[in-house]
Amino acid sequence: MKTLRVELGERSYPIHIGKNLLSRVPAFLTEAGVSVKQMLYVITDENVAPLYLEPLLQSLRESGYTVHSSVVAGGEQAKSFHVFERVMGEVIAAGLDRKSVILALGGGVVGDLSGFVAASFMRGIPFIQLPTTLLAHDSSVGGKVAINHKLGKNLIGAFHQPLAVIYDTDTLTSLPRREVAAGFAEVVKHGLISAEEFVAWLEENAEALNQLEPELIATAIERGCAIKAQIVSEDETEQDTRALLNLGHTFGHAFEAIAAYSQLNHGEAISIGMGLASELAEKMGLCEQGVSERTKRLLARYHLPTEWPDGFDPYDVLEAMRRDKKGVAGRFNLILPRTIGKVEIVKNVDEALILQVMRESAGRRQK
Ligand SMILES: NC(=O)c1ccc[n+]([C@@H]2O[C@H](COP(=O)([O-])OP(=O)(O)OC[C@H]3O[C@@H](n4cnc5c(N)ncnc54)[C@H](O)[C@@H]3O)[C@@H](O)[C@H]2O)c1
Ligand SMILES: O=C(O)C(=O)C[C@@H](O)[C@H](O)[C@H](O)COP(=O)(O)O
Ligand SMILES: [Zn+2]
């Protein structure tokens, strides 16, 4: 097992990464100072529950904890007002109090939803992340918790740090192929924003990583978590540099919202977004020619899309991008590459140029 730390003063917490960690959750709870007098509440989804919920509940009960649970639908639709209201009702009915602890057992959807339930119930109770997807190496770290609105992604949320992240990498063996690929979008993103040599390593080892070779995948997760933890420690509430973690997301979130959170998953949407961001940067002369080609080739090696998806109109995407949280006074503030392994926040990007890049990508698609 490897343990990293997110350094945030009194809100600091460990990220434990390793095999068979779900069976050790009671010990990690003790380490985190959670006593058996505190009621636990596990939130998970319909795909994860049959695989991992019962053994977890059993080990917690055997250790003396009182524990209840909720199971939500699988996928992005669960990050909705409707599901939030339902789970909140179940949590209230179960008799949780201010000392109770929520456990988020699942991918980024369960993590974001459960974290927002924890941030809102009685104005905030502790929660613990038990990630079960590759993508969740990103979502379980950093305390961004949220649900979606039909007009925009993650528009209703909070910053609420977990007490701990317990990442059992054995859970990845049951992930569908499409979700493995989605997870690599955020792994690649972590390389593109901060570490050229990590990108080169991802290029070299793509075949084995796609097969989830255990040692390599553990290294990829550790490196991704470490990059994220460092950025979050420097700028917890995204006053400045945390925005770099948003590479590809202004485009990606717009696709997700327009498609009513179906058709493309988050990893696919931001993969297309990273392709578009790299083209835009080249067009603006921010980075040398070839950065976009290398970015897209790497994403394609992880079976991710990088070109315009069917059924989207560039103008609609541009309008949806206006609701991005980085935008101020209607301006487009985007994260764009300077080179492979270095990105920056570029303010007030010309919308005609953004539209042109999207139209060109849509045009290539139609050929
Ligand atoms: N808070 C953050 O910092 C942050 C960062 C990145 C992404 N996100 C959010 O994360 C969400 C995407 O997360 P995701 O890709 O993990 O999606 P997800 O949670 O929907 O999981 C993907 C699918 O895999 C299933 N699944 C999960 N674990 C499984 C397992 N071990 N075996 C079999 N099936 C399993 C789920 O039921 C779901 O159908 C998006 O809403 C995105 O906005 C948040
Ligand atoms: O943690 C962050 O900060 C990120 O931007 C990580 C992203 O991968 C993640 O998708 C996040 O939820 C996006 O945040 P948002 O503020 O753009 O909704
Ligand atoms: Zn993301």
Detailed description of the structure:
The chain is globular. It has helices at 25-31, 49-62, 81-93, 108-120, 136-139, 177-194, 196-204, 206-210, 214-234, 249-258, 266-283, 291-301, 314-321, 351-366, and strands spanning 2-6, 13-18, 40-45, 67-72, 101-106, 127-131, 144-149, 152-159, 165-168, 334-339, 342-346. By secondary structure, it is α/β, with parallel strands linked by helices. It is built from 14 helices and eleven strands. A hairpin with a 6-residue loop joins strand 1 and strand 2. The strands form four sheets. It has a four-stranded parallel beta sheet with strand order 4-3-5-6, sandwiched between helices. It folds into two domains: 2-174, 3-Layer(aba) Sandwich (Rossmann fold); 177-366, Up-down Bundle (Dehydroquinate synthase-like, alpha domain). The mean pLDDT is 97. The site of nicotinamide-adenine-dinucleotide has 32 residues, from helix 4, helix 5, helix 6 and helix 11. Belongs to the sugar phosphate cyclases superfamily. Dehydroquinate synthase family. One of its GO terms (molecular function) is nucleotide binding. This is 3-dehydroquinate synthase. It holds the Pfam family DHQ_synthase.
